[in-house]
TrEMBL record, chains A, B:
Keywords: Amino-acid biosynthesis, Histidine biosynthesis, Metal-binding, NAD, Oxidoreductase, Zinc. Pathway: Amino-acid biosynthesis; L-histidine biosynthesis; L-histidine from 5-phospho-alpha-D-ribose 1-diphosphate: step 9/9. Its EC number is 1.1.1.23. GO terms for cellular component: cytosol. The keyword Oxidoreductase applies. GO terms for biological process: L-histidine biosynthetic process. It catalyses: L-histidinol + 2 NAD(+) + H2O = L-histidine + 2 NADH + 3 H(+). The active site is at E319, H320. Catalyzes the sequential NAD-dependent oxidations of L-histidinol to L-histidinaldehyde and then to L-histidine. This is Histidinol dehydrogenase. The gene is hisD. It comes from Peribacillus muralis. Its cofactor is Zn(2+). Binds 1 zinc ion per subunit.
Amino acid sequence: MKIERFAEGISLKRSVDAGTADQRKAVQDIIHDVRKSGDSAVHNFTERFDGVRLEELLVSEREMEEATASLSAEQLAIIQEAADNIEMFHEKQIRNSWFTTDDTGTMLGQKLTPLDAVGVYVPGGTAAYPSSVLMNVMPAKAAGVERIVMVSPPGKDGKLSPAVLAAAKIAGVKEIYKVGGAQAIAALAYGTKTIKKVDKIVGPGNIYVALAKREVFGDVAIDMIAGPSEIAVLADESAIASEVAADLLSQAEHDARACSVLVTVSASLAEEVAAEVTKQAALLPRREIAEASIKDYGRIVVCGNMTEAIEAVNELAPEHLEIMTKDGLEVMAKIRHAGAIFIGRYSSEPVGDYFAGPNHVLPTNGTARFSSPLNVDDFQKKSSIIMYSETAFRQNAEKIADFARMEGLEAHARAIESRGVNESGK
Amino acid sequence: MKIERFAEGISLKRSVDAGTADQRKAVQDIIHDVRKSGDSAVHNFTERFDGVRLEELLVSEREMEEATASLSAEQLAIIQEAADNIEMFHEKQIRNSWFTTDDTGTMLGQKLTPLDAVGVYVPGGTAAYPSSVLMNVMPAKAAGVERIVMVSPPGKDGKLSPAVLAAAKIAGVKEIYKVGGAQAIAALAYGTKTIKKVDKIVGPGNIYVALAKREVFGDVAIDMIAGPSEIAVLADESAIASEVAADLLSQAEHDARACSVLVTVSASLAEEVAAEVTKQAALLPRREIAEASIKDYGRIVVCGNMTEAIEAVNELAPEHLEIMTKDGLEVMAKIRHAGAIFIGRYSSEPVGDYFAGPNHVLPTNGTARFSSPLNVDDFQKKSSIIMYSETAFRQNAEKIADFARMEGLEAHARAIESRGVNESGK
């Protein structure tokens, strides 16, 4: 790993794949066709892109049972325990509607309502992760969303990953369609005879899925467009090099464009971690991916002191941050930008990827400056409540009408005055 | 106004102005130039589009004072009172960071952090509304955003609207630049020598501003892309036709594409309101706009009973909803989709547009199905906190490693096992 001295303006940002003009055009055409021809377009694109002509898009009860049966009891128990932990954490995010009153009898407030229907995209192939099902479904469920629809591209055998289906069953998803790509996003956004439209689409996908989400954004809500994953480890001399290296590599194995960074105040730790990464990487099954990621995006940033190290982390705004220092909580308090913060030796990132409860859908590529982990708020919306009393109205009617006239909006002023402010008002 | 019977599938949706290919190209070119040439590009575009060559983009202290001095004491007092009300309401939205602990010593939580810097776009010309300044700035301020930057296009005289500047001063905005259009959005998103970059851009604007926000989305956060405004009034026979009509017209005067709908269970109210709208519209200064809006987008929907009327409103998902019925709170409880809900005779929409405290930046064009009024959450982000205890780690390490292997991610499993789970674990 490259070892460098900290310098201002440090950044993890990689260029985002915005797609080629051809890819954008292809996605627009697919969306257009699905809007026009509905299910038949969905079936045709599935045949073309996934190589299978399906009788039924909907996953049957029997397919769900077969999938579950193909996992071991131990595997099912682990998925169930993870689902329970994730549910418990997200239930703590649920907010109540609230209101205030005043002595004129006016009531103001904010009403929280779950979205009616949410679509969860789950990638196919080797990226078909049961943890992704849990992390996208459980917050929607905690929010009270009644209809949660899952879509995922079928394999050539017309089937979905058993582990994904088992996770969906444990998460309580009942409506699952074997459809992927831009055609799945179009069906969710605009509806077909088989797949009724939803209000929001979440979940990761390939470039076609990402482009399709961008296209339908506005007609439905979408979650973020996720970039490749990243981790920063902030460590002092108290950290253990082999553990730091193992954590950096757990990120690097995801993707050759994943980014693993060590920020440290210890020059000796820097050297040791660099050596450990080389050693451990060579032993990994996904060695090629991990080594490419470390080579292109791996960095060790040596800082003069902890203040500088914290500044470096805040500039990076990493998706995942591990703090392996003395006084981890004190350091955490000074972190302004990070998707998830793992504190201490026993909070290795995979603890949060699968099991602890907080969400693993996190803002990437520096967007932790302004974005949040997927959470219950993403599946609820607010409505303002205004119930003005006659007393409050009479006290303020003239001021409100004056404000309207200051903005040149006479009909607004007259709407107020239509309540007889001129006769009985003031 | 057209009177119709309720039928399922009713919708307020109007096609969203997605811009022409030429407009999109122009916006992309402007953004490219500002990224490349910074301030000099900003000055050049301002000269080209706003017809003025500025010495300084930053509004001076002197300009602020002149603007304030040009408003009456009464006007300033009204803006101040509105600002106080808006601040008070939004302060109630502030959330605390929270955490949970368990008896193994594990701590999980969610840390709330305000965004570092927010840009507020304020349109120029006749759409330069002081209320818009307050509604966009106060939630950011309540959230604790340290740097709030305002941008607005100058008139040919190189000046901004005095009312807008006065509102900015009252709201506590200190950094205001005379720049508008796509060049303002580009400067806020990517920074120039004069205008440092921000993390999020909010506020309404014309098609060039909307397209530019779409382009920079992802590099910075943006609020919604607002469509033309709309109101639905849900009324029974207890409502007063002249008041309902005045409220419908207060929406219609905004924009020829604004949409005003009465949903009612009373056929006689429907007739009366239609007549009142015709009568009152003819007397408005903005008569042409209001009449065009009513003609093209005004509707009266007559329903068989209140259940049907509530269903109609939920299908419309209006930006503003006035409930003028007996048992207004009971009706409100059944509304699932509306940006702001005004209950009772004295909650005429302008009460909320300017004064009561809730935000007037609301989801339009049916997006109340999944979007919320602008609020403090829009200016804070969350970070997950995971501090796993050694006990919890040892209890769960093997399960977490198994989960990782189920997903084919060996380095994840090894990161867990690097903590010595094999020696001392289980």
